[in-house]
Design a protein that fits this description.
By secondary structure, the chain is an all-beta fold. It has one domain: Hypothetical Protein Tm1070, Chain: A (Sandwich). The chain is 0% helix and 43% strand. The chain is built from no helices and eleven strands. The strands form two sheets. Strands 1, 2, 4, 8, 9 and 11 form a six-stranded antiparallel sheet that branches. Strands 3, 5, 6, 7 and 10 form a five-stranded antiparallel sheet that branches. The chain is globular and about 45 Å long. The two termini are 21 Å apart.
């Protein structure tokens, strides 16, 4: 089953899995939430990112990029976020720009390892 599979009804929040980013740079981007590929679904579902949490396990401060696209070609959907060495992070919807996404959500970091989890709200 794909990571974080969209199974929620409109307006319902759904957490994605905890993903360990272990390869630095855009080429190491991993899916942190994937859209449903359910055959009977009509149209494409969209969602908003409501919370991003995790921990920077790298020995240095690093930038975390959240975007869409294939690994190696991920385009950011929001400004990159600083995470600090050895500390956890938890950004809620008040801290994040309101971005509607209609593709698999990917993440990559400049320095690794970084563990990350997102919570989304399905729009339609």
């Amino acid at each position: 089953m794909p990571v974080g599979y969209l199974q929620a009804r409109k307006g319902v929040r759904l957490p994605g899995p905890l993903v360990d980013i272990i390869v630095a740079a855009n080429a190491g981007a991993l899916p942190i939430f994937q859209q449903s590929t359910f055959a009977n679904m009509v149209g494409t579902r969209t969602f908003r990112i409501k919370r991003i949490s995790g921990i920077n396990q790298a020995g240095v401060n690093t930038l975390l990029h959240i975007g869409i696209g294939a690994a190696g070609a991920v385009v950011d959907v929001m400004p990159e976020r600083w995470t600090f060495a050895g500390l956890n992070f938890d950004w809620s919807e008040a801290d994040l720009p309101e971005v509607e996404v209609n593709a698999d959500l990917m993440a990559w970091a400049v320095a690794v390892p970084v563990a990350i989890q997102v919570e989304i709200e399905e729009i339609g």
